[in-house]
Amino acid sequence: MAKHWSLPPTDALRADGLRIADLDTSGTPGFKGDKKAAAALQAERAEVLSGLQEKLYANGRSGDSRNVLLVLQGMDTAGKGGIVRHVIGSVDPQGVDHASFGVPTEEEKQHHYLWRIRKALPRGGQLGVFDRSHYEDVLVVRVHNLVPSEVWEPRYEEINAFEQELVDQGTILVKVAMFVSLDEQKQRLMERLERPDKYWKFNPADIDERAYWPAYQEAYQVMLDRTSTEFAPWHVIPADRKWFSRLAVTELLINALDRLKLDWPTAKFEVEEQKRRLEQA
Ligand code: ADP
Hints:
This protein is α/β, with parallel strands linked by helices. Helices cover 47% and strands 11% of the residues. It has helices at 9-12, 35-61, 80-87, 106-109, 115-119, 140-143, 149-152, 155-168, 182-194, 205-209, 213-227, 242-259, 271-280, and strands spanning 67-74, 96-100, 127-131, 171-179, 234-238.
């Protein structure tokens, strides 16, 4: 068990049976340490993550088709960008396949909602990151009735089948839903308005979305209830404390990579022979 955790993070953060309405967004489930302990641990665990990711990349270069895909969902300001910058930022960018999904383009709108998702899937050996994902098609789309319910309703099952397909092909899915409180969101939006270096993150529409908070809570709950499967479970991260969400996602990724039981790829040449050749070269 990782230091300072009383439960493995995969268990402590598992979505099964969880009611978002009851979630303490400032909690640190399973973690006994404080912010200071977390900072030291984060540095240590980032090294571990980076080492495992290098192994994944090395295996991919040697033809291994397996990979890991981190799916990040959360309301505006929940900290998705911070995870990408601080957690994914600690590994070798060559091995990262990052994609973010905003309002579909005209071209994307002409296609099935999974079209753009399939195009962005990570290759073998890559650590894929989806900043928002196919889940927007049962979240924002449901909340704003962007298509009729007859259209979004079957998507839960369709998404499960899609993810089963990915898992069968050798992808480990790490699905993370991040939650901040309505108050914390207000503070984070205010910070964006108070700091010129954060204006670029502010979108006036984010304020309008706050009126839909309960509808989003409901849509997120249904998403967790219907798409947290054995093969691709959701994890719920209380995200008011950034240091916790970053540490938690680091641990979930380490766990996923550990499950691949990776070794360094064996040499495709005779090592001693190559040493001899090099000596003489
Ligand atoms: P972010 O807000 O994450 O920084 P963007 O500015 O690109 O990123 O905006 C993403 C926006 O796109 C969000 O409001 C999100 O709800 C919306 N979006 C994502 N996917 C869809 C979709 N399939 N249909 C409609 N809106 C979507």
